[in-house]
Predict the 3D structure of the following.
Amino acid sequence: MQQRIYGVETEYALSFETQDRRLRSQDVGALFNHLERALLERYRALKSDSFGRNPTAQNDGINIREGYFLESGARFYYDTGHVEWATPEATTAQQAVLYELAGERTLAEVAQMIPAPHGGRLLLVKNNIDFHGATYGCHENYLVQRRATQREDQVFFDRLVEQLVPFLVTRQIFCGAGRVGAADPRAARDVGYQISQRADFIQYIRSQDTRSDRAIVNQKDEALGDTRRYRRLHLIVGDSNMSPYAAILKLGTTGIVLRLIEEEALHDVPVLDDPVEAVKAISHDLTCRGALLLADGEPSDPIKIQRYYLDAARSFFEHHPPSDATRQVVDMWQATLDDLMIDPLRLADRVDWVIKWRYLMEPQLSKVGTDWRQIAAWNDLIQRLAHEGSGKNGLSAEQYARHQHYLSQHGLSWNDYADQRRLHYALRELDLRYHDIDPGRSLYYTLQRAGKIRQLFNAFDNALIRDAQVRPPHDTRAQLRAQVIGAAHERGEKDTTTLDWGQIGLSHPHSTVSLDDPFSLTHPDIDRYLRGGAGRAARKRTKRTPDADDAESDILVLSEEMIDEADGGLRNWFKRLLRR
Amino acid sequence: MTQQQVPQPTRPDRAPQLEDLLRELDEQRQRDQDAAQRQAEQEQRDRELAEAEASLDALNAEIEGLLSLNSEEFVIRFIQTVGQ
């Protein structure tokens, strides 16, 4: 597909923090209710209705509240203990990330509106782990063209999986969010810090499930549109990114590789011998150069595999001129791999796992005078002690002997236990607070203010992001959703009109309208509805932020001159786009 | 017939000494200038490094100020809330 729909679903951890920066154990559902109320006070929205799409969800013990669609076209809902925000349908990676940021900004602003006792606040964390075995997702969605017959489609999808997997397994080197420790028990005593938050939870190459049996490629086949024409590829292997640069790379490079697969432009793909083990091995190797075994017995490494896809993209685009947005992604991809070849630390201004490592983790290790090998060995012991408990009078003789043996084996001493235990938890708190989305408290945004992060969207956040908080993408069916939200509010029909991604339930006339084509900007039934009565007035926006209308929402058309600029000029590209 | 070897004229003894001396003085002056430049560059680098370290120290202090007083309690409460 030359034009593709992109979407991102982000799950946020939710908690409550007191003024003295202590967390309170709270019922997350109750916290969500506060957030939802505040959101609906500020933004116009209509109830979401999946129209029976998830009939088994409640029976499976999955607690999903349908939530609301907003005028930006985004959906906000509650999914099994987490706040979930799904971007509207976007047509480029850049646009999808802009709407992901707009969602993050909206949640952060709404959380600040909630009157919390004693100066406390709702804490929203955009990460994927709780450090105790739980994981939650950042799911990516890509529209893929359906083949003519079921048989052809199955053959195509099998090829898609085979050719996409080596890319997905290795792309974490530039879009991993980074994490302290390991969730894979086999790695607990060897891994102090790793590249990806999700890697340890991946168990299969492909599966249908998202909550267990997690796979590199999720096979759920729910198009949310015309199932004869489209498939929606749903990926759950990726991390949530704080850095927009990394997020654009994640979505943009994946979109490009899908295009290469669809166009049959990939040949001799470097198929991995064991992709599931490779996901973990790459995540545990901070050099990004660890040897990987290919199915044909040849050795490779993550950067080489990424280079294979980049070279294929460059060759393909020589004969199929790319859009400006795509060309920008290719240039970012090239610059990132070039820097990785020299030293991963060169990405400390744009890739989350490196930013976190360079500015949050390393200073702590230097202060204590330790290294990741020791941290990993201590992690294992500290977690085992926490799990076993030490009884009222300390460790039992058996426990002491066993742990003493472990310490001797790893060249560690009980004398360092107190310092290492403090460090163990300090690193985890730093890790979590990097992903706090409150601009005033987040360690990511603190680093950004200190000039450590390459500026992209944030160079003009007050215009583009504010616009994306209230206005849908100009080139997808999210437009129709937004128009219906406006009209229903104007007509007093907000409690009787419901929305889904591909359907709209109207009350006057009582009908369900299918929006089968995600690229469609019109529908005769919706046009009739909008023309009726107060529909015209509905187009007036009554809850807009003051400067929303001043912004140029089309961020995707870059001039040749801009494209020719060196990678270092990216910031200027975006600034100039804003002035267009 | 072989070419006749003609003795090369020799310069007066004092001229090379003066030239050498001048060259040496010139080279010494150049060395001094280079050393002074290197020292200035080193001092500039030291200043920049000190500023960068001070800036990083300030950043680290700002980061520390955003953390809770008890990280262990913070992490355990996070697990209790989010992993429930």
